[in-house]
Amino acid sequence: MSERRRRFDPAGPITGIFFIALAGVFLADGLSRGRLLEAAVMVPVVLIGLGVVGTVRVLTRSRRRSLR
User: Fold this and answer.
1) Under DSSP, is residue 19 helix (H, G, I), strand (E, B) or coil?
2) C-alpha 14: how far from its chain's center?
3) CB within 8 A of 43, min separation 6: which ones?
4) Which residue of 35, 40, 41, 58 is 20 to 30 Å from 2, comparing CA positions?
5) CA distances from 10 to 2, 51, 61 (A)
6) Cα–Cα nearest to 21, from 58, 46, 56
């Protein structure tokens, strides 16, 4: 039986870190009296973050296929 070498796939951890950070910002915004970030700042940050996460997932797609 040949053992396949497991390689690190960065797509999952990067996606997780992005969504945990986003949840933290929303939680801090909800618990604070004032606005932590305005919508004019928050919307582009979320869209850019989703773009980065999507780019990482596309770039590591071949790596994920070889892990199966």
Assistant:
1) helix
2) 5
3) none
4) 58
5) 25, 15, 10
6) 46
pTM flag (> 0.70): no
Q: Are 15 and 53 in contact (CB under 8 A)?
A: yes
Give residue 65's pLDDT.
62
CA separation, residue 3 to residues 6, 20, 29, 67, 68 (Å): 9, 34, 48, 12, 12
Asked whether 18 and 60 are in contact (CB, 8 A), the reply is no
- Output the pLDDT for position 39: 79
User: CB–CB of 52/18 below 8 Å?
Assistant: yes
